[in-house]
Amino acid sequence: MSSVKDITGLMSLPSPEEIAVITRAYSFAEKAHRDHKRFSGEPYFTHVVETAKTLARFGMRGNTIAAGLLHDTIEDVGVEAEDIKKEFGSDILFLVEGVTKLGKIRYRGLDRHNESLRKLFVATAKDIRVIMIRLADRLHNVRTLEYVPEHKRERIAKETLDIYAPVAYRLGIQRMHRKLEDESFRYAYPKEYREIKEIFDRESDERKKILTKFHRSIIKELTKHNVEVLKTDYRLKGLYSLYLKYLRKDKDIHKIYDILAIRVIVPTVADCYNVLGVIHGKWRPMPKRIKDFISFPKPNGYKSLHTTVFTGEGAVAEIQIKTEEMHNEAEFGIASHISYKEGGHSGGESWISALTPPNWVREEHSDTPTPIRTDRVPYWLKDILENDSTTSDTSEFVESIKGDLFEHRIFVFTPNGDVIDLPLDASPVDFAYAVHSDIGDRTFGAKVNDKMVSLDKPLQNGDVVEIKTRSSSKPSEKWLRYAKTSLAQRRIRNALAKNKKGSHMYQDEN
Hints:
Strand order of the largest sheet: 1-2-5-4-3
Number of helices: 22
CATH superfamily of the largest domain: Hypothetical protein af1432
CATH class of the largest domain: Mainly Alpha
Number of domains: 4
């Protein structure tokens, strides 16, 4: 059985106060779950300890880890909220109740509008620590799915793939995202899992040999050019990620070029570009497979240089080049920025601080957290908050944001080089509203890659889009057919309603 030290030992320089609150929460949870068992027959307390350890590994601080230990005490063993508040304070109670609310309503499929989706998204947008606890809780649950009854196992696995893994991805937590996907895939879609595993295993040994040999060649070439390298490693693509790409590539495994990947970690950004030059000087790159996510980061914060090269062994491999800071941010995402301590943040003016309001700005515990400074929150989270405040119907809310969060994404650019993140098949109308609502409302035309296009033309990855505006222009009803994002759809409806109201007022005056 793990101890408190096994949890705090995973933290970075825990304070005496943090150790104290975690120790009290450990003892409280151990007593509360004393007679509580899991499907495996293990003590339930094992689960909450593993949840707390995951939170510690991902850089969470004392209150969040304590809440991780306590997260099932209200729902599963009937501990009173007042007892938690009395023992641990209103902030920890807020987190525990936040996680409890997310667990109450069961998922019934992504295509069936479910209040649990709404609760999850809004909790994510209001206090990021709530979703971190829920993700850590879910990770241990899917790791032990083999012990869960089959009907429940499938539901949990599909819920994880449809909701939790995509949310982890959008928060930039690649390590969590990969683990959630790969642990759930075999139980959610056993037939498809066996299909892709058979294809993967057929050439796995040969791929590993090629990758190992190519990895050694890269190290040798970088050493030859006196490039300082902090670390290199390699990996084979995760099965669920491979399966999704396999479907997108018409089930042709030979069209997938990132099954093999090598990661090179160097001290500085300049070193990243130096490594890219050395590699391209030795191995031929594939056209259109060079991606600069350092100059143009993904909206979830991911930064790296990617190139795909011919290895000389009749194979291709993707090479990812990044600094150590970029690597840590890619693995831990939003969690790498959170340094939450009682009384305030050490994270400065990052947008994450807007989603983790400290104790001293919270009022006495209530269901409503401290108002968020949404001007610093990423647009996709800000949009969820705005959507929740303006949409009373759960079905409409869920439908409107599914595309924003779960569909395949494209990245297009403004003429100044700013990246705009949109769902697949988004139109110039979506682009215009993503830049600014006033630009969307006054749009009368669009240029894509310096050519005028119609407003219903689907945009492609890498397009440069320029919106033409006119003060007299107004949104039309047909724009709703072009718009793929909830933001654009909502703004268009608002503008149409306002124009209609103005028209009626004008008629009434006559």
